From TrEMBL:
One of its GO terms (biological process) is methylation. InterPro entries: Methyltransf_25 (IPR041698), SAM-dependent_MTases_sf (IPR029063). Residues 45-139 form the Methyltransferase domain. Pfam families: Methyltransf_25 (PF13649). It comes from Devosia oryziradicis. Keywords: Methyltransferase, S-adenosyl-L-methionine, Transferase. This is Methyltransferase domain-containing protein. One of its GO terms (molecular function) is methyltransferase activity.
Length: 198
């Protein structure tokens, strides 16, 4: 099974994971708090590797203008259905997370959650360079990533080393210790990074 087929097949059960579907109100509220802490207020956001759109909806509820991209059509279909059910005008598209087809400098914020590790065929530095071109000057790249007990993922140090030189790290945060984000205690490395474009 190729990668796209795998993630398409995952779409039907993707939201069953508590931190994916955000169905529990307390957990959903906790993710909302995290995003408000990490992101500058207002602006246009690109949610890269948006999956079924759970974070996109949180951002739209908070007043951001949101676009989302994911290369699995089944994920995008579910994201669109969620947005329609919630009455949100979110622009979802099927596309390559490593090379999103949007105009340069068209977003105030680029957000990626648990997506960098899933792009194994392109160097992390090249992916981050491409994402940075999408940011307006002063815009923010916000990454929520991890290195899991399974051996999958990326260490925070590796992500920081791969950031383009025109980004300045504004904030890093260990988010593994907060079980309210995951609906369980976790012991692996989970972190958030915000870096702003000069």
């Amino acid at each position: 099974m190729n990668t796209r087929a795998f993630w398409n097949s995952e779409a039907t059960t993707f939201d069953d994971a508590a931190d994916h579907g955000l169905r529990d109100p307390a957990l959903r509220a906790r993710w909302g708090e995290l995003l408000r802490r990490l992101l500058p207020s207002g602006g246009r956001v690109l949610d890269i590797g948006c999956g079924t759109g759970s974070l996109s909806l949180l951002l739209a509820e908070a007043g951001y203008a949101v676009s989302g991209v994911d290369f699995a059509p089944a994920m995008v279909e579910r994201a669109r259905a969620k947005a329609a059910a919630g009455g949100f005008d979110i622009q979802f598209a099927v596309g390559d997370a490593a090379d999103p087809q949007f105009a340069a400098e068209s977003f105030d914020i680029v957000l990626g959650r648990h997506i960098l590790w899933a792009i194994p065929d392109v160097p992390t530095s090249a992916v981050l360079e491409r994402w940075t071109t999408l940011l307006r000057p002063g815009g923010s790249l916000v990454l929520i990533e991890g290195f899991w007990h399974t051996g999958a993922g990326l260490r925070q140090s590796a992500v920081l080393d791969a950031l383009p030189p025109n980004l300045t790290v504004i904030h890093t945060e260990d988010i593994a210790a907060d079980p309210r984000l995951w609906d369980e205690a976790v012991t692996d490395e989970r972190y958030a990074v915000r870096a702003d474009k000069s």
